[in-house]
Amino acid sequence: EPTVRTELMEQIPPIAIFLQESRPKFPTAFFEYLMPIVVRYLTDVNNQVRKAGQEALLILLEQDLIAQSDIENKVCPILLDLSAPDSDDEYKVEAVNIICKMASMLSRTTVEHMLLPRFCELCSDGKLFQVRKICAANFGDICNAVGQEATERLLIPKFFELCSDSVWGMRKACAECFMAVSYTTSPEVRRSKLSPLFISLISDTCRWVRQAAFQSLGPFISTFANPSSAGLYIREDGTLSIRPSTQDVNSNSCQPSNNITLMSSSTSAT
């Protein structure tokens, strides 16, 4: 029964945590018994079971309970199969969503070598606009996961494609994550490539795209500032924050905090 399998998947993370804490007694139980179940349920015929399996997988990755070898040899291959060009549409959409969510939890090497090539392919998926939409919405997170060199070499050309997509929702998603993408690039790329691209979004024919671009204008401009002098930095939750200088803090020690937090465009509501 699908409900039984769903309930089972919900119990996998707490069992895995217990086994991790009791590892001297159960050194290989998770890898031998539970990990194969998680991987198998990612391809279950029932939608609710697959969803429970995906949630369990993300929790296990977040808790650092899956060994690097299992990530590379078991998890990534199944996700690459599910996101292949000839894969079922529903499976492909789910797979690209998981790939984007797990990118921030994996090592840069694993993401760049195993997942980045497929992500670039999915950005140009001509069959499903839902796949391209997920890629656009999570573009900033992928850039942050692979770093500046891979972003400028492989991802920026794909970002240009998405920013000129015929579906306005794609262009809107790009406008919302523009600051996060810009933050990962060099000052020269921001000036010569991203600035003209942003102008095209802020002049878009669709008012929803223009509105999203105007909301991202301030955060995008902030990426041109020198972090050491401006005090700008990106928090772990994806927000752009302005840290006041030590001199300002000392001179206003009796005043309320002047910290300003701007929501990153990658986390704004769609």
Protein topology:
Elements: H1 2-21, H2 29-41, H3 47-62, H4 68-82, H5 89-102, H6 108-123, H7 129-137, H8 139-146, H9 148-163, H10 168-176, H11 178-184, H12 187-202, H13 207-222, H14 227-230, E1 232-234, E2 240-242, H15 246-251, E3 260-262
Antiparallel strand pairs: 1-2, 2-3
Helix pairs in contact: 1-2, 1-3, 2-4, 4-5, 5-7, 7-10, 8-9, 8-11, 10-13, 11-13
Structure in words:
The longest helix has 20 residues, at 2-21. The model is unreliable at 246-270 (pLDDT under 50). 69% of the residues lie in helices and 3% in strands. It has a domain at 1-66. It has 270 residues and is mainly alpha-helical. It is built from 15 helices and three strands. Helix 5 (89-102) runs parallel beside helix 7 and helix 7 runs parallel beside helix 10. The two termini are 36 Å apart. The protein has a three-stranded antiparallel sheet. Keywords: Repeat. HEAT repeats lie at residues 115-154. Residues 246-270 are annotated as: Disordered. This is PP4R1 phosphatase.
